[in-house]
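Following the same procedure, backbone shapes were mapped to integers, yielding the entry below.
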Amino acid sequence: MSLPDWATRLLRRMTKLPRSLPILLVLGAVLCLVVGTIVIPRSCAGVSPRPTHSGTALPDVKAEGAILVEALTGTVLWSKAPDRRLPPASCTKIMTALIVLEHVDDLTAYATVPSIHLPQTVGIGLQPGERITIEQALRALIVKSANDAALTLATYVAGDEATFVTLMNARAQQLGLSRTHFENCRGTPSPGHVSTARDLATLGRFAMRNARFRELAGTRTAVITWPPDHSVHVRSHNRLLRYPWGDGVKTGATPQSGTVLVGSGSPGLVPLIVVTMHEPNRDREERDAVGLLQWGSAQYVRKTLVAAGDVVTTVRLAGGGRVALVAAGPLTAVVRTAAVVKVRHAAPPRLSLLPPSGTAVGRAAYWADGVRVGTIILVAAGTVPASPRPSRSASASP
């Protein structure tokens, strides 16, 4: 590394001065400043996100609103402006499909295409008066994001789109989507048509519990058919379906909303839901979503919460002393590394007689992130002079 000209000249002048401690100190300070001006900017420029303890980096998400949750419990692992109201675009159709599935039992029934404005910006080419099965229309709705299929389904269920939207908003309130409001069943831009990353994650979690919806959301390509001989090949825009662990849910895009994704997948031990809203493009959307899912997966580990024979608690004896209650067998579960694991005992507060060793006396349930992850049998294991120290299974962090 070469020094600037002014520093070189300064060094030459210094060599002509008496060699004394003050001069050396000044020279050292100058050199430190010179090296610092060169090294520090280079080390700070273009710093990438730091990896976590797992070695997986948290991406620098560009979305205006985003969230990552564990699909089973809804535990929020990460978020960015999760309650900001933004246009959901065609992720609206998650609710559209859910309402249809909750109101229609026979998916082989035919729906008649209503009078709609043609052509639709996104559609499969349905014409007023044509007939298509509910199943085929649903597949066009979720895979292709077809607006003509959305209007056909809404009319079949409620008679017209406006009445169907009333059903959508009522269901949103029932699901606790407090910052969501729908103006149409398609996701067409409208000032009052809004949702949030948190609400869409809740909606996605709920919808994916429905087996029929889950199959639709996991479909990457399909051929949509309807009488007399129409056949249209459709492909999902959800890039998560290109990954072996991706299984849903829905994408959307308009000039007002940017690209929007409600994604689902299990890159690791647990299923996760990711939402990104108002991304600049699909490439960035994919990068952020995949990065978040991989980072979130690294936050979970498989732990032995209690081993067979570990003392879990004690129970008083009527005649004095205490009986140790131990785990009859081990309990292993997948938990967040940072989760607080709690133990809830179900055993008599006092025993009149000392039970033989190995006698089942009660149970202990283990909870993490508010969800029960397993239950063990507690068996007697002799007397103890005082309450033993709790086993590692009852510690705050597994």
Notes: Residues 14-53, 392-398 have pLDDT under 50 and may be disordered. Residues 21-44 form the longest helix (24 residues).
